[in-house]
């Protein structure tokens, strides 16, 4: 009896696996954008789960096939593929062909056609079985260019020549175990799905323990949900008592498998060491074959990996499991021999860990006391903290208490640090108190301990106390005294900031920030370069850079597990958001900063309180602004510069709200504080704000803007007016009040969009957007859409927009009222013109600031009036390939508003022809520079506007061909032919020739 082709395979293998309890992993879904995806990782890395979830979330059709050993036979594989795609549109064809006797290769080609026809994804799981088999030959057909996508999931690397070729062409992408490993965010989401909320430190501990190994993360999550393990158990796998070893017995068995007893023994006995080197095992385990055995283990898939040229390491969970199998006395003996080896070879960090495991507390204490300060300087705060926690308190010395204080201080645990310093020697106690005051910027708390330290310290270390005293003077706002004591402070970023040299301060802060993220280091708290740069960017009105630095600083604070850095970063993010005018987001950031700072240091609350006080003043809540300011002043700890900044910011908030008359008193207080500590910038910002409120002179304000043009030119955190147009009006007023300074004020004018300082009559104090693309509208900068007094005013605006040079009044009247009697037409036109003026200019603006009237009518676009059609023609007029032009063209609306005026209709036709033409030109440029993806976007948009645009169609066909999408190129040609047929035309000979060349068809 002849078998039906369906009898060669099983429908069970073509079912999409059910995914339960998986976390969303959009970054893996993004990988499906590749035409061919190869996912290679060992067992337990969640290949099937990840791809099943991603495939289910994909908008297009999906087919699945789990391969087995029988698919090595090409006929069986052809049957399996036919069954996998039968539910897709056109999916019956491969099976019908196979039943009619078609070859397996032909069937694979038909499967590829099915995938191409409906842009489907086919996932082939357990593909490692195809390597080196006759069945692998079918993949060449399956991976042919088209709209379909194929994902291959394999435990081992696939040896397929087609994949190498596709990778070179950019059509194939790979995911490895590293990409499949869970990120900290995904681990947090998985715990959350079980109703467990982890802190940032607990998430990082879980990630460190599992290294993101998906099956280990899932076991850990289930065990935590069942109460068999707690997040605290993850903090220290080296301590020897973690219950994770038995928890992962199954995983260990999966990993170890049927290992040779000698290899298993070596792996078990060496599990007391974090890193393995042959010389260590030869010495500590008396194993002369150590190098050979380590090489064998590294190549056997046991998660023993190379960590260096001569160094190996096992997965932390595997080590925890194996260490639990060792008798305690044997583990201590091995650790003791290892400790001796590490000391002889100068590996003191490893020696300390081994002594702790061996129970050699006294020797561990000596090592830690002697080396701990160096490790802290290297940023190894966690190492010192964990080592101290493993050391019995009975062997602690005053030096170790001082070391513990330093480690706790660097971790922003200031109260605990103070308690440890109290148990240190007198000098270390005094120096610890000084450093606590410096780290939290509370200079008033440092003077007494500084005097104690100076009396106790030896003459050879007096320079250390002098440097600390100088930094405290800087923190107190006593700049002259600080640099007199320590001249080198003059070259620092904080000195430049506090003296008002913001350019130098930013340059130095960025130099500090360069390379600051990543790597082992201790948190520098208020000295973090990124966060200082964020504050300076906000002060200079560079709001995007300010926000970016704050967010990077926040991420670094989370990595360092420093609540101080995180709280300060949130406050600096609030400053960036407030300067940008996003007051709701700023309030959220300030409140988050306050919550983070609550249990860290009072001084850390000053900046978020300062920001909230400014927001309260801006909103007209004077009582709250005053209360917040008073609360913040109580936390400044003797820092006069910070007090001046706080008073200035709160007063600026009042100045920009309904309580502006209450602001001058605060501004004058800020001036006095900044004058006392020598900050020129703070004095300048206060002087400009006083002029704004008619409470200060024009001369001081002009000097302020001359020295710091960004106070008016950009949205500075310390600008006296929030809006650009409002600052422009203030600049015009200042130029009028101090004519001799107009030249010096030109920098601010240029930043505001003017060639020179404008006249007050030309600066209405608000901006207007005129829209005629898509619809006719007038929008104010506050987002309000202006209502039309008369419908004809809308038509008049469109008419003026399509005549940027203007037109005679009579012509405009005739266009709007062609059939009216002259007197009636004149009267109606006059009313219409007045209505348009009201819409554009409102009562507060001088008549004519945006609308030129009289015998000649014209819109007056400029810094305060923007016409979208003018901006569109500016982009259309640029040369093809101009940076940013394609993105601007893609964002343009397809048509002008539908206005029943001949001139507007004519302009609409011109625009409708120019836009696809410009997009087609961009597509040609993109093809010329080998960017078919950009060409496809440009040409595709052009054809959506004009389906019969042949140059765009030719460009899109070439782009699709270059991207390996031959079928898509055919669909472009078919759509063009249909669009031309509707017009009674056919493709030009050059278009036909291009299609014949791309398709390989004969003429």
Verbal overview:
It is a single chain. The chain is mostly helical. The chain is built from 52 helices and 13 strands. Helix 22 (398-410) runs parallel beside helix 24, helix 37 (663-677) packs antiparallel against helix 38 (680-692) and helix 43 (791-801) packs across helix 45 (822-841).
Name its key features.
1003 residues; mainly alpha; 5-stranded parallel sheet
Give the arrangement of secondary structure elements.
Elements: H1 26-31, E1 36-40, H2 47-57, E2 62-66, H3 74-85, H4 92-99, H5 104-118, E3 121-125, H6 139-142, E4 149-154, H7 161-169, E5 172-175, H8 177-180, H9 184-193, H10 200-210, H11 214-225, H12 244-247, H13 249-256, H14 261-269, H15 278-284, H16 290-298, E6 304-308, E7 311-314, H17 316-325, H18 328-344, H19 348-358, H20 361-377, H21 381-390, H22 398-410, H23 414-421, H24 426-439, H25 447-456, H26 462-475, H27 479-485, H28 493-499, H29 502-513, H30 529-539, H31 543-559, H32 563-579, H33 583-597, H34 606-618, H35 622-633, H36 640-655, H37 663-677, H38 680-692, H39 698-707, H40 710-713, H41 724-737, H42 746-751, E8 768-771, E9 777-780, H43 791-801, E10 807-808, H44 809-816, H45 822-841, E11 851-852, E12 856-859, E13 865-867, H46 868-876, H47 885-891, H48 902-928, H49 932-945, H50 950-962, H51 966-982, H52 989-999
Parallel strand pairs: 1-4, 1-5, 2-3, 3-4, 8-13
Antiparallel strand pairs: 6-7, 8-9, 10-12, 11-12
Helix pairs in contact: 3-4, 3-5, 4-5, 9-10, 13-17, 14-16, 15-18, 18-19, 19-20, 20-21, 20-22, 21-22, 22-23, 22-24, 23-24, 24-25, 24-26, 25-26, 26-27, 28-29, 29-30, 30-31, 30-32, 31-32, 32-33, 32-34, 33-34, 34-35, 34-36, 35-36, 36-37, 36-38, 37-38, 38-39, 43-45, 47-48, 48-49, 48-50, 49-50, 50-51, ...
